[in-house]
Write a structure and sequence with these properties.
4-stranded antiparallel beta sheet, 5-stranded antiparallel beta sheet, mainly beta, 14 strands
């Protein structure tokens, strides 16, 4: 392989890595797989997108999921929305500078049924915009889905 071909290859490989890291730089929930009926620690990762400071995120809890408790790191706050005593939404607030991310964790019991859990994820930015990281142009973003397997 000559030097110009090597440079072209390395440039293309670098572009692929940059695009793949950019594609993953959205608000996501993990783990991506869990067990029906299990207690699970979930983590919502919120990166600042581009040059805009993120101000936090909101998560709507799927039907059948019971949130038990939260991690409480310094520097951020959260509010919960309840319906009939069950937590149905969580909103975290924190200034997240460009190039940084924050992780918000909680423990919840999964529903007994198997199949996908679809979490509605929204990120809030300093300019007042809100981005939905549940529904993308090609359907539901993979980062909003947790697959449940039988216990």
């Amino acid at each position: 392989m000559n030097i110009s071909m090597a440079r072209a290859f390395l440039g293309a490989a670098g572009a692929v890595l940059l695009l793949s890291s950019t594609a993953e730089a959205h608000t996501t929930i993990s783990p991506r797989q869990s067990i029906a009926g299990a207690m699970e620690k979930y983590t919502v990762r919120v990166p600042a997108e581009g040059q805009m400071m993120a101000k936090g995120a909101e998560l709507e809890v799927p039907e059948g999921v019971t949130v038990a408790n939260f991690a409480t790191p310094a520097g951020w706050t959260y509010d919960v929305k309840r319906q009939d005593g069950r937590i149905v939404a969580i909103r975290w607030r924190m200034d997240i500078k460009p190039g940084e991310f924050a992780e918000f964790s909680f423990v919840a019991r999964n529903p007994q049924s198997t199949g996908p859990l679809i979490w509605k994820l929204r990120e809030f930015f300093a300019d007042g915009t809100v981005t939905d990281f549940t529904n993308g142009p090609d359907g539901i973003y993979p980062g909003a889905i947790v697959k449940l397997s039988p216990n």
